[in-house]
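Reading a protein record of the kind used here takes little practice once its layout is understood. Each number in the token line that follows is a code from a learned vocabulary of backbone shapes. One such record is shown here in full, so that the layout can be seen directly:
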Amino acid sequence: MSGIYIHIPFCKQACHYCDFHFSTSLKLKGALVASLVQEVEMRKDYLVDKMLTSIYFGGGTPSLLDGEDLELLFNKIYELFDLKKGAEITLEANPDDLNVEKLKMLKDTPVNRLSIGIQSFSEADLRFMNRAHSSREAHQCIELAQAHGFENLTVDLIYGSPTTSDEQWIQNMDYLIDYKIPHLSCYCLTVEDRTALAHMVKTGKVANVNDEQASRQFDMLIDKMTSNGFEHYEISNFAKPGWHAIHNANYWKGKPYLGIGPSAHSYNGKSRQWNVANNSRYIKGISNRELPFEIEQLSHEQRYNEYIMTGLRTKWGVEISKMEEAFRPHFLREIKSFLEEGQVIEKNGNYTLSQKGKHLADRIAMELFKT
């Protein structure tokens, strides 16, 4: 089973923390959508398995697409691929886009899951992050989406911001519990290079992320959500039973996927490739039927490292039996100290992170890498 990711590289405005590829100018939107359709055609044979379990519109801000844009894309995908019954079709959306008209349009498309980038219900947080929506719109978009029949909702929240007190963080989570949102993705605020936030921190205009606060709020997140019936099935993701994200779970399980659009990544189990992160160059290349991309053939070591990195982040963990035999002695030797410290739990050859270990997920993975 495979998935398709479609990158929509447009946003109304730039969030201070974001380092994804996007443009705030929509003048190339029509040409870009036409190029996306053409790339799907050009790369129809990339996936050996033509049965799709998921389609994911990410960005950027996919909710800036209109009905005609989505129809063009869906028509081409349905022409070239098969969809498994009940396939998950997700569209990322900003709260300020989800008005009645937009939701009626989306309800008439195959989209059956909305990923809403709320980030916070606090005006102070939203202004600090330079989000385009207000606290009122954060509440309203959920209520409107549910009223229009969108039951499968996931919401993004950010913790660790200098403006997010522990009390505000609890309130953000309580709102989603009260709304009966079945899936939640939570990310620690990160200061990425070449972002407005990085510049503000460097020049002393704002405080850097406080590691102690971020760690404390991560523990609050785990305790709050698990005590309210959510499963912590990946470091940043929580779901009610039966509401796991199919598309993202397949990423973590190493399933193949096709990435369409500027900066989009694709993976087939043996290599990884990524499209140019430039809208004009992408459109020009597609028009010449010469997709500009880079490709990396994955060595045995790289495939082992990726399995460790993604597997340890999930409730499924990593299994010694799924590793190439040559890497097992290295893994068993390096994992020993983390087992002794109670950061990793082993059961029948399966290794998962404890809550203590989840705070150190990246460090533990790096220590287990084979270089």
Notes: The chain has 14 helices and 15 strands.
